[in-house]
Write a structure and sequence with these properties.
The protein is mainly α. Helix content is 51%, strand content 5%.
């Protein structure tokens, strides 16, 4: 019970951290949307449903067509 005096400070710090996380999530999602819309508009990213995504070669593993982000080794 001796540590209850720190509760108001801890609660305030947790609230501030929560607000920072929420802001980061909003900014990150906005950035993701903006980048994807730019790539759709410039035809770098296609939403065509007729394009082949997965293909198979005899005796080999399945191959997946990847976009620029996957080829660069990071996800947005």
């Amino acid at each position: 019970m001796s540590d209850l005096s720190t509760w108001p400070t801890l609660k305030k710090e947790i609230g501030e951290f929560h607000d920072e996380v929420v802001d980061f999530q909003k900014e990150d999602f906005d950035r993701w949307c903006r980048l994807n819309l730019e790539e759709i508009n410039s035809n770098e990213l296609s939403l065509k449903t007729s394009a082949q995504v997965v293909y198979f070669e005899a005796g080999k593993d399945m191959k997946v067509t990847t976009g620029r982000y996957l080829e660069m080794g990071h996800f947005v």
